[in-house]
């Protein structure tokens, strides 16, 4: 019926196209009245790209017994209703759904939508592939998912497909990094739906629901670090009683006085009264009223007919002016008002609490395996983009699929871990399929590189020490690609057969020192390893892997060997005396443990002894029977902390390249603590699960604590999406859940003498509950739902039993005298984790001599000698024919390094060996606007800018010279010409 209605309305569509031919999408705002309260009705729908149903189930309206929602029908219905009346407006956000709709519809419906967008009647908001989470994604994933959506919109709608307003109305807290990215993408402002309830109430009273957020005051970049920020009054919903959707039970507006149900005289004054209450929390005579909600407008006429009546009869009240509006039109009206706005200086909007006792801090850790796979998928995405450019492979389709899968996972119910289990499985499946799909690109890249085209395998199960190529074959080749801008080093671990020795050769025909390392017992007992042969890990260090290039290694099985032996294997005996034993490769970096219990005691750095203990424990909830007061996918709510102080068993392995302490705390908690030869960090590889559900039947939220003598006064730091550190302070009057903050790559505590930094391999929640302690939550299993909509307890299973999560922490401990070492350990290590050298394996029939002839070192395709050590190529992507997108980042912050925190200037004309650079254009961060043409609204605010640092923002496009300030990212389009 809706589609046939669109055909009937074709003539009116043509007439209106002529009528609006001179009107641009940004001029379509209705006039406001300076002497009245302007009530901006903003029709919208909030369409989750996966939550209770998968993204595709939501699009097609399948599996409706799980939840209502059919996004293709929502878009159809909205387009039809907008076409009925040119005064109507609508705001749409989720590009992933719009992309599906666009591919499904023919030219008529596409043209109709394009006309509505061009006339400003359908306004595209935000532009990201999804409305992303802000706590757990890495900053590079956030940029990419925004760029993917913005590129689609620009491609289909031109200048009108370049959104001006961000709409982050449903994420559970808001980060400074995301806000800064929005500024760098050229957005005029952002609107939020969720902030801490206490902050919300205070802002309502103080009339600070709308503000200028000075995101990074230390930079003092003025408007380059400022964003207009608005908080919606009622999440993203209309006033209670005025939901007109077919899923709602509120009364419609009935205006026929001859009928008994006439209610205009009651409903319209009621609406006006409620909005006047809203208006008391805002500073101008404008109020934004969202008219929509989750998956609303499947029958859009129910909304528009009633809003038409609100406007018609509401405007009979001389004190108000009703109008159809959009977030951009509302923001434009505020800017024209000329008010002086309050300022939020620094900080962010974490943690989020929906009431005084319910903190949405559990999701920082929920579903750790999804969080890890998303990071790995982003890692390989950057690798294959680079290979596609450098080797000119033209294999964009498999890359595009991977881009879409990684972008989809950034949804605020995706990587956050807050979707139903079958939806999470769908995210995982999309990621796994698309990662496997780019293996063929490696095959093509190596064929270009070496002339040989073996089949490449990624061995994605090395996390459980499983890899068919290395375990099965006598000879195989390891290929390692380094996506970093500097040489990389990687300790390679691969499972091999337990009865044999192996030899490893480098591509200079040198034998590489290697060793065989035993697997932890708890790992061997994993159900995923059932039926697999006993294995050991082959370990060696791949050194000096050239930037954006390959190293290859030839591995051959040789003779049989004796079983590995440990230095010691003990069970804890509390009656034995405590003895210290040190493990080290050099005297300046020692790990001291209790030889009786296996627990860590001290770390000696440069002959100075520092307390360093590590314990596990878990939080259990209160006995409240109320579901809304329980831990769940979103909520962390604790009542008691139970400590597992000592390993019940431990063993030590000392090899040529590493020392490992295997610790077992229980049948479901174990850990390997490692130090490597030539390294000054400690690696903790933890394994948690299956978290037991039997016995006490309680929720368990597992944490690890690093205990030091650092006097940090419960102050600590967590990173913002993997970039800047945010200062945090433990609030002793609040419970632990109120003191948890998201970590994407690193957490830190320090005092005047020392600094402890811990780097993670995925997003986790963290806190500092006591002086000297840095705590991370590793895994969770809840027995109940938390009442926030998922209607499932958080109980992930693999092969019918609870999930086992395995991951790593890297610990750096430094004296504050070594300020530069503190920064280097954090910044360089975080890059090596996020953009790790990527390994693929090939079975081979070649002899070592034949392999050497084919794989001896090749000339790199890129010259990186001119790139300074504090600069990283964040994105290298083929964008179009002879057009490359290049994004550079300065990855040091201000004042953290004596040299590398300074601006860096470099020239890139000779960057590529197989391309000539013809032209360079600097773009905004989202790559959809030319930077010098991008202008933003100016706002009056309650302070004057002062400048501490006057960094030069210099870019010479003609000489291809670039200057980057600390933490700055710049994006360029390069026009190139192949040299052969």
TrEMBL record:
It is an enzyme of class 3 (hydrolase). It comes from the Eukaryota. It holds the Pfam family Glyco_hydro_38C. Its cofactor is Zn(2+). InterPro entries: Gal_mutarotase_sf_dom, GH38_C, Glyco_hydro/deAcase_b/a-brl, Glyco_hydro_38_C, Glyco_hydro_38_cen, Glyco_hydro_38_cen_sf, Glyco_hydro_38_N, Glyco_hydro_38_N_sf. GO terms for cellular component: lysosome. It catalyses: Hydrolysis of terminal, non-reducing alpha-D-mannose residues in alpha-D-mannosides. Binds 1 zinc ion per subunit. Its EC number is 3.2.1.-. One of its GO terms (biological process) is mannose metabolic process. Residues 358-431 form the Glycoside hydrolase family 38 central domain. Keywords: Disulfide bond, Glycoprotein, Glycosidase, Hydrolase, Metal-binding, Signal, Zinc. GO terms for molecular function: alpha-mannosidase activity; carbohydrate binding; metal ion binding. This is Alpha-mannosidase. It comes from Cimex lectularius (Bed bug).
């Amino acid at each position: 019926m809706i589609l046939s209605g669109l055909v009937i309305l074709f003539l009116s569509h043509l007439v209106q196209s002529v009528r609006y031919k001179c009107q641009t999408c940004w001029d379509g705002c209705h006039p406001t009245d300076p002497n009245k309260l302007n009530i901006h009705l903003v029709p919208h729908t909030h369409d989750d790209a996966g939550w209770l149903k998968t993204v595709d189930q939501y699009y097609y309206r399948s599996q409706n017994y799980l939840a209502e929602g059919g996004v293709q029908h929502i878009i159809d219905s909205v387009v039809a209703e907008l076409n009925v009346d040119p005064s109507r407006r609508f705001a749409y956000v989720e590009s992933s759904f719009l992309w599906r709709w666009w591919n499904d519809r023919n030219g008529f419906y596409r043209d109709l939508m394009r006309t509505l967008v061009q006339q400003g009647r359908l306004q595209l908001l935000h532009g990201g592939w999804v409305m992303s989470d802000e706590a757990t994604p890495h900053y590079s994933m956030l940029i990419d998912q925004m760029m993917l959506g913005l590129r689609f919109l620009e491609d289909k709608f031109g200048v009108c497909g370049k959104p001006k307003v961000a709409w982050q109305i449903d994420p559970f807290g808001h980060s400074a990094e995301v806000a800064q990215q929005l500024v760098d993408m050229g957005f005029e402002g952002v609107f939020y739906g969720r902030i801490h309830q206490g902050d919300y109430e205070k802002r309502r009273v103080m009339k600070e629901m709308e503000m200028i957020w000075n995101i990074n005051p230390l930079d003092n970049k003025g408007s380059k670090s400022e964003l207009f920020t608005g908080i919606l009054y009622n999440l993203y919903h209309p006033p209670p009683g005025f939901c007109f959707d077919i899923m709602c039970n509120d009364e419609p507006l009935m205006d026929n006085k001859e009928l008994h149900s006439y209610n205009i005289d009651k409903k319209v004054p009621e609406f006006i009264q409620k909005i006047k209450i809203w208006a008391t929390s805002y500073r101008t005579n404008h109020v934004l009223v969202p008219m929509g909600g989750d998956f609303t407008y499947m029958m859009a006429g129910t909304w528009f007919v009633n809003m038409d009546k609100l406007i018609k009869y509401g405007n009979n009240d001389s004190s108000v002016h009703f109008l159809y509006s959009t977030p951009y039109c509302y923001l434009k009206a505020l800017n024209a008002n000329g008010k002086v706005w309050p300022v939020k200086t620094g900080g962010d909007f974490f943690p989020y609490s929906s009431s005084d006792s319910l903190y949405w801090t559990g999701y920082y850790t929920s579903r750790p395996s999804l969080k890890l796979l998303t990071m790995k998928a982003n890692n390989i995405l950057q690798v294959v983009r680079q290979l596609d450019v450098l080797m000119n492979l033209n294999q964009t389709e498999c890359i595009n699929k991977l881009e879409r899968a990684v972008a989809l996972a950034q949804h605020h119910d995706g990587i956050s871990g807050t979707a139903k289990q079958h939806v999470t499985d769908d995210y995982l499946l999309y990621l796994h399929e698309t990662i496997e799909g780019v293996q063929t690109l490696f095959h093509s890249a190596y064929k270009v590189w070496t002339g040989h085209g073996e089949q490449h395998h990624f061995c994605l199960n090395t996390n459980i020490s499983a890899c068919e190529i290395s375990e099965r074959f006598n000879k195989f080749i390891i290929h390692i690609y380094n996506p970093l801008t500097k040489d990389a080093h990687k300790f390679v671990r691969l499972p091999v057969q337990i009865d044999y020795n192996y030899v490893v050769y480098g591509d200079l025909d040198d034998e590489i020192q290697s060793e065989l390392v035993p697997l932890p017992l708890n790992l061997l007992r994993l159900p995923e390893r059932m039926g697999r042969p006993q294995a050991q890990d082959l370990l060696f260090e791949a050194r000096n892997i050239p930037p954006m290039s390959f190293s290859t290694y030839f591995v051959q099985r040789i003779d049989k060997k004796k079983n590995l032996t440990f230095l010691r294997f003990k069970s804890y005996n509390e009656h034995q005396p405590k003895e210290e034993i040190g493990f080290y490769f050099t005297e300046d970096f020692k790990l001291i443990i209790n030889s009786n219990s296996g627990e860590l005691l001290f770390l000696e750095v440069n002959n100075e002894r520092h307390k360093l203990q590590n314990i596990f424990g878990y939080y259990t909830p209160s006995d409240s029977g109320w579901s809304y007061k329980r831990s769940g996918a979103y909520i962390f709510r604790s009542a008691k902390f139970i400590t597992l102080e000592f390993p019940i068993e431990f063993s030590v392995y000392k090899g040529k390249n590493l020392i490992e302490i295997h610790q077992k705390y229980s049948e479901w908690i174990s850990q390997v603590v490692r130090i490597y030869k030539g390294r000054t960090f400690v690696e903790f590889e933890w394994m948690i699960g299956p978290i037991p559900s039997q016995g006490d039947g309680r929720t368990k939220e597992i944490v690890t604590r690093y205990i030091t003598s650092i006097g940090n006064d419960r102050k600590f730091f967590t990173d913002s999406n993997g970039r800047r550190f945010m200062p945090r302070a433990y609030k002793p009057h609040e419970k632990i859940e109120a003191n948890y903050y998201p970590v994407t790559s690193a957490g830190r505590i320090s005092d005047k003498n020392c600094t402890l930094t811990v780097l993670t391999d995925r997003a986790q929640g963290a806190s500092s509950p006591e002086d000297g302690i840095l705590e991370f939550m590793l895994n969770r299993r809840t027995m109940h739902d938390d009442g926030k909509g998922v209607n499932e307890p958080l109980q992930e299973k693999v092969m019918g039993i609870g999930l086992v999560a395995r991951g790593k922490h890297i610990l750096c401990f430094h004296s504050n005298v070594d300020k530069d070492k503190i920064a280097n350990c954090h910044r360089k290590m975080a890059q090596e984790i996020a953009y790790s050298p990527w390994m693929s394996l090939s079975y081979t029939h070649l002899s070592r001599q034949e392999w050497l002839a084919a794989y001896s070192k090749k000339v790199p395709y890129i010259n990186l000698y001119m790139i300074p050590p504090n600069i990283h190529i964040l994105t290298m992507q083929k964008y179009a024919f002879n057009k490359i997108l290049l994004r550079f980042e300065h990855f040091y912050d201000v004042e953290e390094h004596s040299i590398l925190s300074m601006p860096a200037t470099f020239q890139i004309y000779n960057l590529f060996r197989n391309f000539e650079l013809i032209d360079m254009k600097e773009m905004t961060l989202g790559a959809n606007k030319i930077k010098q043409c991008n202008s933003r609204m100016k706002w009056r605010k309650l302070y004057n800018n002062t400048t501490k640092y006057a960094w030069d923002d210099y870019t010479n496009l003609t000489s291809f010279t670039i200057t980057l300030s600390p933490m700055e990212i710049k994006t360029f389009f390069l026009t190139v010409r192949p040299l052969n």
